Every structure is written in C-alpha cells, then in structure tokens.
Input
Amino acid sequence: MSRIIKSISNFLSKNERIIFYSILLINILFLFRTRFYPSLDGPSHLYNSNVIKQLIFNNNFLAEFYQINTIAIPNWTSHFLLSLFRFFLPAWLSEKLLLILYISGMAVSFRYLIKSLKPENLALSVFIFPFIYSYLFHLGFYNYALSFIFFFLTLTYWINNYKANKPILYLFTGILLLCTFFSNILTFSFLGITIGCMIIYTEFESNASDGKQLALSCVKRLANLALCALPSLILSFIFLKNVTFSTSTQGYDSNELIKWINDVRPLIVYGYEKEVNYTGQIFHVILIILFLSLVLKQNKVILKDQFSNLKQAILWFPICLSLVLFFVLPNDSSAGMMSDRLCLLFFIYLTIITATRNLPINMRTLFYVIIIFIHFSVLKKHSTIIRDLHEDAAMINQSANHIEANKIILPVNLSDNWLEPHFSSYLGVDKPLVILENYETEVGWFPVRWNPNSPNILLGERNTLNGHTFHENKNTQTKRQVDYIFLYGNLSKMEEANMKELKEIIAAEFTLEYESENKFIQLYKKKS
Output
C-alpha cells in the first residue's frame, strides 16, 4: 500500500498542475450535461437579468412594472454578469458562462491562496472542489458563492503585498473589497475582519518590544484599511438603513447544529441520508489532518511556528467568530438561511487551515485521493437529479414559444419538488414577460424591484386568489389584466378544493393554448 501511495506521490509531484486543471475541466464539463443548470433561485436570477437587459433597451412594457433598484445592494455581481452576457448570448449560454467563471474562479483563486500560504501544499488546493458545489450554490445563491472568489483573491493579494505598505496596496484592496460587497455583505464583513486581524498580528510580530510603536503602527495600518474600505462601508450603511430584514428568532437547536458540523451540511443538497455518508468523511479527514499536523514527530520542531506564523494565525479569530455566530444567530435573521451561510463560511476557513498543515508528502497524497474520490462520488449522485430537474426546466422554457411577448403571466406552481417554486421564471429568460412569481422584486435586496407607479394587476376583478396577491398598487388607478395562466407540476392537484375558484375562472375567461405531452404543463390564454 505504501509503495502505491509513494508512486502516486511521485506522479502527483511531477504532474500536479496538469492534474489540478484536468479535475477543473471535468467539473466544467459536468455543467454541460444539461442545457440549463437547475437550482431553486437560479431561474429568478436568469429571468431578472433579462429584465435588466430589456430595461436598458427601453422596453416600455416592462418599464411599466419594473425598475432597477436605486440602492447599491450587495447582490449585483451575478445579475451584472448575466445581464452583460445577455447582450450577446442566449439565456442558457449566459448561465453556463457565469457558472464556468464561478467554478474556475473558486478553484484557481483558492489555489493561488494556498500557493501564497503554503507552496509545498499546492496539491491540497483540491480541497476546495467539494465546496464549489455547495448546498447554497444549488439553491441558486450565486452572489454568495461568487463572493468567495473575491475573498480568496483579496487575501492572496494582501498576503503577497502587505509588507510593501504602498498606496497601491490599499487602492487594489479597496477595489477588491468593493467587489466583495457587491457580491455579499457577510463575506465582505468577514474579509475585513480577517485583514484587520492580519494587520494587528503583523505589527505585533514587528513591534512587540515597543508598545508605543506597536499601537501607532496598528492604528495607522487599520486607518488605511478603513479608508480603502470606506466606499464599501458607506454603501453597506445605506443598504442596511434602507432594507428591512426579518426579525424572526426561529433557529435550530445546538444538537442539530453540531450535527451539521459533523455531517458537513453545506455539501448535502438533494438527499441527506444518501449524501451524508460521503460528506461526513470530509470532516473526519479535516480532523485527522489537524491532529496529525500537531502530533507527528517531524512537526514537533515547528509546532511553535504553526501558531506563531502570521499566515496561519490570522485565520483563527474569524473562524472562531463564524462558529460562535453559527450557534448564536437565528437561522431566519437578516436575509434568511443564516445558519447555512455561516456554516459554509466556517468550513471555507477550516478548509484553508487544513490545506496549509504540515504533513509528509505521502499523507498529503492519501488525503488528496480521498477528497477527489468523495467529490466525484457526490457529483455522480447529483447528476441524475439535475437531469430530472432540467427536463422540467426545459419544458417550461420551451412553453414560452406559445406566449406572445410583452404579456403578463400568472404562474401556478403545482410541483411536488421543493426546488421548483421559481421554475416559471424560465418562461421569461429569453422573452420580455411579466411573471407574477418574482420574489426578487418584493424583498428589496436585489437589482430589480417593482416600479412604484406600476399598474394594478387583476385576474378578472380579483387581486387575490387562494390567499395569493398578485401585485397590488394602491397608488395608481391603472389596471392590467393577466394575459396567461401557466400551470406546471402535478396537474391532478387542480382537483383539490382550494383550486375550485381558479378552475372556475379558467373555464369562464381562458382557453387552453398549450399542454405538454406528459401533462406537466398547461397554458391558458385569456379570451379576446
């Protein structure tokens, strides 16, 4: 066994770069198994990027209903890129390009960070691959996912240039901080904390014997950091002042959160019981590496350096802070799913620390092989479900061929799949449509919002159906009627008692325009 590992180690040391980029290429090719890459919120992001494009091109119909958010919100990155790509690419290819940039950016930026922290451990940069396909990524939290690219790039840039202490350092750091803010405010906050810790520790190492000089140096460097982060801080203040978040105290108990850590919950997507057997092993690998890096005889000499080294020490405070907040903050606080966000953030820090431990080359090779095996095993499990979801997404997207442009669509989600409530957005990714299931316009922290002067949208004389309000605007007398009703999912649910009113409206005011062969979709058009 040791001979096999030694042979693999030799091969890996000679071909590490080629192997890394080959693994990255396989991950990219995985995206092309389907036309769309279905997720919970991804369809909404893709749809609203088309809305942004249409608004820029002065689509007067959509401008009646939507406008671009005037507040600089920390959710712009994916929408900006998707909207940019939509100028010259179809929706499905724009999404592909965004996801290629995300996967490549995560892998390469993490690799450069590990190269800066621990060059001899460059092979262990493969630790990031499982975390690229996280639970939140599959929920369509693209901006949060993209924020880690800027997180890694900023840390790498600072680590490589902090000693120079030149204005250019703070200029580029400020730009990277601004990019992080426009992706996610939580990641931006922790990035600032991490760099602040680095400054304090750097100055302590350099001026520990002179307390006065230490204090002055820390204040000066921290003030420079605050200055370069000032634009981002001002935008953060404006955003938090103008957006109302949930004040719910609903959360998980400590035992459940501990289980999340042990099972590496951020990597479990579609089936807890089926995936935990793989994801849980990642945490065990991390624990083994951390343990071995402390007890192996060859490391005893450098044990002190493990904790005194600047590049290692700066991570311990933010990782502890993320863990404390993970157990303290309710899951529904702020924009929601805070426990999921903090758990992923904790593991991102932990992965950096793990990938920079001192280990013999044979052990590094063994853990390398284990992580890659786990990663591709989980991807294989995801593959079948993604194909099934894509079939639904593609059918919905093709249904738009039966809808006229510049019309109002009332979608009715009858799907039994928890990932499909926003799939109706696939109707409007290539065509200017007002789709009345558009949560982004309601919450206030996305680039597109309802126009304050938009018309009242009615179904007959109704503004509400089965407890669902379409879009009521009491500040206008202008009214618009729903043009199409789009049913998708388990159509047998239309026989349930709560659907009686909708069925009566459809029978009286609409005609069947299209029905899919498998009875997954029914499209009704308002009678002339």
Residues 297-310 have pLDDT under 50 and may be disordered. The CA atoms of residues 504 and 510 lie 10 Å apart. Residues 2-136+144-386 form one domain.
